[in-house]
Write a structure and sequence with these properties.
Layout: E1 4-9, H1 15-28, E2 33-38, E3 48-50, E4 56-58, E5 60-62, H2 68-78, E6 83-86, H3 94-107, E7 111-116, H4 126-134, E8 137-140, E9 143-144, E10 150-151, E11 153-156, E12 178-181, H5 183-191
Parallel strand pairs: 1-7, 1-8, 2-5, 2-6, 6-7
Antiparallel strand pairs: 3-4, 9-10, 11-12
Helix pairs in contact: 2-3, 3-4
């Protein structure tokens, strides 16, 4: 039986690398995968999933309001799919996560979602909230804080490298804009 997976972490834990490896493993065995990513994240170009270690693949993009179950059903009409892999899944809407449960339950295709759990203020992203609630399997990918502890929070940095307390929930960026830290250091910068 297929399942819905949510692989989550702070930034720089290797989520995209893990996604790319999973897709490669399926394809190496002659199986078809469908890789998707959020249209909002165009750091590596539109329709690409790329890892900081230099590997990448083409991907279909999704935006707010896209019906993922319908899109996947159209793809199934063209070829058999063995796995759906979604990068930047924190940007999914509640309805899109519900649609992915439909894909798993009715098409019997595993769906592997990779994304951040919380934003720079320690709040859940919508996609993450519903993946945490509805996924069959939750897998935390780990990275470390500068102090050596497990990093489970993310700081957003201003142009001078100082942590920001306010701003829009979504601001696309990489190491120049974000730092993964443990809860202790997150608290020191934002809560205390």
């Amino acid at each position: 039986m297929a399942q819905l997976y949510f692989y989550y972490s702070a930034m720089n834990a290797g989520k995209s690398t893990s996604l790319l490896q999973s897709s490669y493993n399926y394809r190496e065995r002659g199986m078809n995968t469908l890789v998707m990513t959020a249209s909002i994240d165009d750091r590596y170009g539109i329709g690409k999933v790329a890892s900081r270690i230099g590997i990448e693949t083409e991907a279909h993009v999704f935006s707010d309001g896209d019906n993922l179950a319908y899109f996947i059903e159209k793809q199934l009409a063209e070829q058999k799919l063995h796995c759906i892999l979604i990068d930047e899944s924190q940007f999914l809407s509640k309805e899109q996560v519900k649609q992915l449960t439909h894909v798993v339950d009715n098409f019997d295709i595993p769906v592997l979602c990779y994304g951040l759990k919380t934003d720079f203020q320690g709040e859940l992203f919508t996609g993450s909230q519903y993946l945490l609630a509805w996924a069959d399997k939750l897998v935390e990918l780990k990275t470390i804080c500068h102090c050596g502890r497990k990093a489970n929070m993310v700081l957003r940095l201003d142009g001078n490298g100082k942590p920001m307390r306010d701003g829009e929930q979504v601001a696309i960026g990489g190491n120049e804009s974000y730092e993964s830290v443990c809860r202790k250091h997150f608290r020191e910068f934002l809560w205390d």
